What does this fold into?
Amino acid sequence: MKLQLPKITRTTLALYAGASGDHNPMHIDLDVARSAGMDDVFAHGMLSMAYLGRLLTANVPQERIRSYSVRFTSITPLYAEPTATALVTKVEDGLTHLDLTMELADGTVTLKGSAVIEGELAA
It folds into this structure.
């Protein structure tokens, strides 16, 4: 399963901050990001996790998701167009195990994770 995401813009970050209540200035204030040594603001890690969740729920009813976890491995810079991917690693005892990744066009992996769903994925 793959999901190509739209370009991450300042508007994306502002809308996510408003919806989530996460107004960390590193993600929305250029001056704060630069004072911390960054070139620009960057996406909230939880925004990327939400996009991976969208990939899952677009393919599996939410009530079949038994576990979902991620580890943040790199930032998602402004204007990136990440791709969310889920690969089946095992089907056992009525459960499907998935490896999850969020990857940028240059090959940088920004999230690695896993999910377990009840039943199998539809072909």
Q: What stands out?
A: The longest strand covers residues 83-92.
